[in-house]
Amino acid sequence: MSEQTLTHYRKLQHPDFIGAYALEPGKDLILTIASVRNESFKSMDGKQEEGIIIRWAEPDYKPMICNATNGKSITKALKTPYIEQWVGQKIQLYSKRIRAFGEDMDALRVREYAPKTEQIDPTTAIAKVNACQTLEELKAVYSGLTKAEQAHPEVVKAKDARKGEVK
Predict the structure, then answer these.
(1) Residue 29 in contact with residue 22, Cβ under 8 Å?
(2) Contacts of 71 (CB under 8 A, 6+ apart)
(3) Which of 22, 68, 112, 129 could bridge 76 with an S-S bond, Cβ 3.0-4.6 Å?
(4) Chain centroid offset of residue 127 CA
(5) 105 and 97 in contact (C-beta within 8 Å)?
(6) Do residue 129 and residue 69 come from a single domain?
(7) Are residues 102 and 140 in the same domain?
């Protein structure tokens, strides 16, 4: 059984924030920053804390607590320390083995460079979406598209339009 078919125990604990456990082994994750602000939250030990919270434009991902290390990496990747200029920008997350709190652990980290954006031609994806005759078929086709295709504005527009037309 490969690591990619296994479930990390932290996924079952329903933590409020994204962590290294959320990434597939050896894979990076590219997300778009929707908001950055100082918020109050409960730490893993139940204490009330305050810190920088980053929320994503992609709705399926939990927010991230932005520690000093990741804040510096985002600043380098986006070439600005100003959080207002981070909004709408993509960053690339990865998992790194670190030594912290007296033990070795996996930590969520941000690459110090902006991710390369994948240029896709949405024509085929739009054609697949437009060919759907039922809502179930539309769901199946859309979930079968790549993440880049699913996120493409023209594909999203076609999906939403087709959703209103099929039953």
Answers:
(1) yes
(2) 52
(3) 112
(4) 26
(5) yes
(6) no
(7) no
Q: Encoding tokens for residue 39?
A: 């918020």
The CA-atom distances, in angstroms, between 131 and each of 112, 138, 145, 156, 165 are 41, 9, 14, 15, 11
What is the C-alpha to C-alpha distance for residues 48 and 8, in angstroms, rounded to an integer? 26
- Asked whether the beta carbons of 79 and 54 are under 8 A apart, the reply is no
Kindly state the tokens that stand for 65: 């607590």
pTM of the model: 0.64
- Report the number of distinct structural domains present in the chain: 2
Q: Work out whether strand 64-65 and strand 103-110 pair parallel, antiparallel, or are unpaired.
A: unpaired
Q: What is the pLDDT of residue 1?
A: 47
Q: What per-residue confidence (pLDDT) applies to 150?
A: 85
φ and ψ at residue 40, rounded to 5 degrees: -90, 140
Instruction: Read off the pLDDT of residues 75-108 as tens digits, 9 standing for 90 and up.
Output: 999 999 999 999 999 999 999 998 888 888 889 9
Residue 78 zone, left/alpha/beta (φ > 0; ψ -120 to 50; rest): alpha
Residue 101 lies in a domain: yes
